[in-house]
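Researcher: Quick test of sequence recovery. Tokens follow.
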């Protein structure tokens, strides 16, 4: 069984098993330059944890593309969210054809460890950003906590590790994205980078 099957199997119980601190999510999003009317790519949306926090920030003219490899996760997210501003997609963000340079923010919340080729993932995600757009890799828990959780969650995700922030910054720089904000401590993990331009 692979990642997709693992998350499909976990979808219905995910929100009970995985607790997300709303205060920390707000703190993370406060570090991102989100404005009314923005287009956001919510990578690995899962059950749509971020969506209710994003919608007020982008307002009625904004748009969220919420993508996940797990059909069952997307089904749960759809049930929870009735907003016309959100488009749900089942697919791998790294192989799905999305329009280049079309998002003001690309946010990877609680998903980055699951990418096999992390450097290539950053390059691909960065290509979706508009000039001046921001790429965010974030967790509302510490890196150690995330990595320990994956080790004990099951064979499908046991080796899915979150590298330290300096490694992600290196990927950003190689892609031409300038690091803006970095937190890698016992509370949370956040790396925000900005694509040059507007």
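Model:
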């Amino acid at each position: 069984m692979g990642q997709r099957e693992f998350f499909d199997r976990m979808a219905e119980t995910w929100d009970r098993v995985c607790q997300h601190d709303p205060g920390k999510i707000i703190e993370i999003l406060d570090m991102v330059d989100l404005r009314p009317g923005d287009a956001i790519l919510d990578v690995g949306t899962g059950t749509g944890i971020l969506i209710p926090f994003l919608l007020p920030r982008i307002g009625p003219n904004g748009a969220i593309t919420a993508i996940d490899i797990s059909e069952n996760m997307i089904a749960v997210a759809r049930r929870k969210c009735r907003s016309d501003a959100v488009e749900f997609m089942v697919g791998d963000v790294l192989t799905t054809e999305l329009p280049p340079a079309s998002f003001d923010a690309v946010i990877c919340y609680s998903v980055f460890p699951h990418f096999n080729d992390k450097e290539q993932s950053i390059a691909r995600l960065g290509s979706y950003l508009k000039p001046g757009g921001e790429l965010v890799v974030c967790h509302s828990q510490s890196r150690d906590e995330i990595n320990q959780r994956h080790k004990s969650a099951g064979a499908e995700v046991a080796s899915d590790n979150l590298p330290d922030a300096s490694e992600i910054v290196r990927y950003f720089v190689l892609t031409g994205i300038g690091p803006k904000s970095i937190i890698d401590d016992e509370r949370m993990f956040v790396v925000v980078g900005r694509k040059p331009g507007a």
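The mean pLDDT is 89.
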